[in-house]
Amino acid sequence: xxxxxxxxxxxxxxxxxxxxxxxxxxxxxxxxxxxxxxxxxxxxxxxxxxxxxxxxxxxxxxxxxxxxxxxxxxxxxxxxxxxxxxxxxxxxxxxxxxxxxxxxxxxxxxxxxxxxxxxxxxxxxxxxxxxxxxxxxxxxxxxxxxxxxxxxxxxxxxxxxxxxxxxxxxxxxxxxxxxxxxxxxxxxxxxxxxxxxxxxxxxxxxxxxxxxxxxxxxxxxxxxxxxxxxxxxxxxxxxxxxxxxxxxxxxxxxxxxxxxxxxxxxxxxxxxxxxxxxxxxxxxxxxxxxxxxxxxxxxxxxxxxxxxxxxxxxxxxxxxxxxxxxxxxxxxxxxxxxxxxxxxxxxxxxxxxxxxxxxxxxxxxxxxxxxxxxxxxxxxxxxxxxxxxxxxxxxxxxxxxxxxxxxxxxxxxxxxxxxxxxxxxxxxxxxxxxxxxxxxxxxxxxxxxxxxxxxxxxxxxxxxxxxxxxxxxxxxxxxxxxxxxxxxxxxxxxxxxxxxxxxxxxxxxxxxxxxxxxxxxxxxxxxxxxxxxxxxxxxxxxxxxxxxxxxxxxxxxxxxxxxxxxxxxxxxxxxxxxx
Length: 579
Hints:
Keywords: Hydrolase, Magnesium, Manganese, Metal-binding, Nuclease. By secondary structure, this protein is α+β, with helices and mostly antiparallel strands.
């Protein structure tokens, strides 16, 4: 197929499109950082990608911005992108010196003409402080500081807080600092650029530096085939809802009242589980804030509206603290019929007997508990208790490795790589994702059920090219260093991998992997600290280490109980320090 280009997008951008314009454009590749204008080429590529993927959702403002950007002279484009990549909206001209852009005024003029830059903006003095060094504060604002009881040696944060509280009005920067040797500009289109960045990445956590890190090899990503269904937002209103939730979260972090934020939150997003998950998490945080303030009724109401994991459990605690035992029991029985996770099941096992006692009801039947084996060691005091235990128990014939959560997760990630990185709609939006967007959502495994079933079926084949050992070794070799939510490459040496493949039974791997898939968020943590291999006997044992005063956490108890139920060799080692 022929390649196509569009005017104004630059020579590095033609590889972003296939000649078939009805198909999805190829994901943009990072420009070489050896090119002085690498950042501009990356920004152009991202804009082109957004324009192709979201043609039907772009509003008039975004279309106009893209057209105007395409028409700008290259120095003006480059200066704009340099500013977009930096933090904030205010810039000093003496800090915008870039050799590849050249003289500043010719680059600034077209941006000023479009209204994208505002020269000498009106600012409160607290923002002026942020533009100045400590020495410049004393030189330009000394009289203002003195008038408000501040000294030049005070911290800038204290100065800003005092002057903001004084409410002494706003003025152009040049009025605050008439003798300053530099000018100040304000960018006026940063919210629009953030919106375009959101469409490209599907989040506001990532920035344009991802292109650079990928080009330098600092971060390497699996290349997932993207389709027209791969975009993060199927509807324009989804973009607006995301931005409203993000704005509420920033206001929450800045200390705004819970009441104001509850009022500002969008309505439930019934047809977009991803957005509703974000909304549910913020509701959970708001409920926690109300709980800390002592407003338990409002906290319980907000927990009831949240889909965030643990919200129902927190609501149960609120009802119990308020002695609303009948309501708590009714909600607990509802949860018991369909627990959201093993963590909630564990909470109910503790809560239900208390509620029954307080309501003078027969106690429920306690679930059987299988305690893991334990051993006790007295060791010389050491910095790391896990390392001390490993050193004591290890031998050439039976080596001990510190693995905690890394080994089982890595084996799962290597065996199931193709399922994890499958191009499921709504999972991958751009070339810089280390994990599918729905990884921690309840539907993650169900949406890939056939793919995971095919991967796990390899555990029934011990040898051969399609056997699980061969697949894991092949993935370890072929995907080495690529970002993964399960494989931490630095923690998985080839020696450790071979010991694991020799000593861990396929039946145990299947049980661990199936448990991971039931709840990735909760179950990829809490695994035992150490593993000891016995290669001659093709056996192993896992060891959870507890130093003096340390106790088992709930997620560790769940993993230990799971291993005990399935007769997996696991010990809890309690350590005391020698006098």
